[in-house]
């Protein structure tokens, strides 16, 4: 398949593309909630695929793959969506001899997506605690740090600032 992500070429989930598409639609503020819903629902979607596989029912496999494909595509988990598309087509063709291998590929990609999503969410702080964070910084460094703090706030996070000398740069959003 060439899209397993191990070579560093393609991400399992393209969060930047997902954020851009949501920003373009004017709803970037719901990105964290949508990712949480995907993360929470994904195991149930894989369980539905497994149940359909056990039945050997092509139409049930196709339906379960289609539902999960839509969710994966929405959050820009493109390699997973492609694997689910293959499984959906096999289900529609009732190609039962292909189900096990295709579902195994879906499991592998599903696990990689959830792992990558967990890493990404862990690296996007919801709260930054600061104590004298701007002390001793040059003006350009101060501006860069304030921009980073603003990015956390604008993405739904918060900052808590402790400062002994209140001064010229009180631009941090709360």
Q: Please, could you describe this protein's structure?
A:
The structure is a single chain. With 174 residues, the protein is mainly alpha-helical. The chain is 63% helix and 6% strand. A two-stranded parallel sheet has the order 1-2. Mean pLDDT is 81; it is low at 1-7.
Descriptive key words:
2 strands, 174 residues
What's the short story on this structure?
The protein is mainly α. It is built from 6 helices and 2 strands; from the N terminus they run H-H-H-H-H-E-H-E.
Structure summary, number of beta strands: 2
| Unreliable parts | 1-7
- Average of per-residue pLDDT values: 81
Which shape, going by the Cα principal axes?
A: elongated
Structural class based on helices, strands and sheet pairing: mainly alpha
Question: How much strand content do the residues show?
Answer: 5-15%
Largest sheet: 2 strands, parallel
The first-to-last residue Cα distance is 46 Å
**Biggest sheet: strands side by side, in what order?**
1-2
How much helicity do the residues have? 55-70%
User: Radius of gyration, rounded?
Assistant: 22 Å
Helix-strand topology string: HHHHHEHE
Strand and helix layout:
Elements: H1 15-24, H2 31-55, H3 58-74, H4 78-92, H5 96-122, E1 127-131, H6 139-154, E2 158-162
Parallel strand pairs: 1-2
């Amino acid at each position: 398949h060439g899209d397993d992500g191990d070579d560093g070429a393609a991400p399992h989930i393209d969060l930047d593309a997902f954020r851009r598409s949501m920003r373009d639609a004017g709803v970037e503020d719901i990105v964290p909630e949508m990712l949480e819903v995907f993360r929470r629902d994904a195991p149930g979607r894989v369980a539905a695929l497994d149940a359909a596989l056990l039945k050997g029912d092509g139409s049930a496999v196709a339906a379960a793959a289609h539902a999960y494909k839509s969710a994966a595509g929405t959050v820009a988990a493109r390699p997973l969506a492609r694997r689910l598309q293959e499984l959906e087509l096999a289900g529609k063709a009732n190609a039962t001899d292909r189900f096990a291998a295709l579902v195994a590929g879906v499991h592998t990609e599903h696990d990689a997506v959830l792992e990558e999503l967990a890493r990404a969410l862990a690296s996007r702080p919801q709260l930054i605690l600061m104590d004298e964070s701007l002390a001793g910084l040059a003006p350009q460094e101060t501006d860069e740090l304030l921009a980073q703090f603003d990015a956390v706030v604008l993405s739904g996070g918060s900052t808590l600032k402790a400062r002994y000398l209140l001064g010229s740069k009180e631009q941090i959003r709360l």
